[in-house]
Amino acid sequence: MKTKSLIWFLFFFFIFAAPIELFAVKIIRGPYIENSNTESGVLRFRLDKSTNAWLTYGAYPNCNTFMTISGAAYEQKFMLYGLLSDTKHCYRIFVPNDDNTGVYKAAESFFKTFKGQNKPYLEFIAFGDSGSISDDQYPIAKQMEKFNPDFLIHTGDVVQDGLDRDADAQYFLPYKNIIAKHSVFISLGNHEYGKFYKDTDALKFLKKNFSPFHSMPVNGKSPHYYYFDNGNARFISLDVNSYYGIVSAPSIAKDSKQYKWLEWILSRSKQEWNIVFLHEPMYSNGYHGSSERLREVLEPLFLKYNVDLVFQGHDHNYERTYPVKEGEADEDGIIYVTLGGGGAPLYFKRTNYDWSAEFIPAYHFAHITIKKNKLNMSVYDKSGDMIDDLEIKK
Questions:
Q1: What are the angstrom distances between the C-alpha of 104 and each of 25, 171, 382?
Q2: CB neighbours of 109 closer than 8 A, spacing ≥ 6?
Q3: How many C-beta atoms lie closer than 10 Å to residue 8's C-beta?
Q4: Whole-angstrom distance, CA of residue 1 vs CA of residue 24
């Protein structure tokens, strides 16, 4: 009798005394903010069960200004409207317990909306080629968490083989604290098209493993190419993977839709700064080297419309060029920065062109500030030591 009584006591204890979270629906991915701007944003997360979710949000500290509910789903996506520009906003996520008799707060965080053009200052972080099964991402992420950027840009290859089943270990967990508070804008790398990215059905892979879980701006052909403005700067993401042999990627040739779109966006930019980010490098001394075909197409356009800086990835190293034009160092040229040391195995220098100002095979990220007509970039390794810096004045 004593044994049976003890069993019943323990049963009722765990049912009625245990915290509600023990029996509740869990967030197993995220939350993460994407595609934020001056007045809206997207909040995403994944649940362990298909169910409804509730969200409250508003300008900090009034997190309950707006309340909305979603339909039952594993993948939750909330559109956040009615936001104030250049303002800290907070959000709270509520999900039910198993029998739907109550809800509990599963997550809470905050983010900041974009600045309008009348505020010519901002800061952001840039990195790339982070997809890896190594532990090198975590110290990089830890160093990035020391900053409070307006957003982040990623130069591609988010997940090593592009599979969503690997995305938690290689992206959502290492950067969990960052992506809950800051939008990340991703330029598609070849690995986003899958391990067999040169196959004709690679686009199906992208639509299955990337597109359902990320929200990029829809002013071009999302997620392939798009742009966004923040403060006095315009940022343009391109998909240049067709020049890497990915036949399902959109063309970037001079008669292509992407090229014509790019010229339209550049020609109508009223921003003080125009910055492009893409994956395959136009100038590189790393393992893959420069794409001269890509350079022939894009460089004349960049020069014509005064692009100030190009961030690129693919080569797993850090490299910064001098201002370069038509393959030669030229003060009237453009600076190209390779940010490919986000966590994937590092590459070493294979060539030694004179236009290269700095080449470092190290894990790294860049922190960039823009204040009116001055841009400053500081590059840090995974220990937090600054390995390069750059200043551009206009």
A1: 9, 27, 37
A2: 31, 90, 91, 180, 181
A3: 10
A4: 33
Per-domain residue ranges of the chain: 20-112, 121-393
Same fold, 20-112 and 121-393: no
Nearest residue to 380 via CA among 371, 391, 372, 389: 389
- Residues 75 and 315: their CA atoms lie apart, in Å, by 33
Q: Identify the pLDDT of residue 5.
A: 46
Q: Domain 121-393 - what CATH class?
A: alpha beta
Identity of the residue numbered 313: G
pLDDT of residue 200: 85
For residue 101, what pLDDT band results from cuts at 50, 70 and 90? low
* Choices 3.10.129.10, 3.10.310.70, 3.40.50.1780, 2.60.40.10: CATH for 20-112: 2.60.40.10
Distance between CA atoms of 186 and 106, rounded to whole angstroms? 27
Segment 27-52 shows an average pLDDT of 96
- Express each pLDDT in 242-284 by its tens digit: 999 999 999 999 999 999 999 999 999 999 999 999 999 999 9
Q: Please give the radius of gyration of the chain, using alpha carbons only, rounded to the nearest integer.
A: 23
CB 372, CB 121: distance < 8 Å: yes
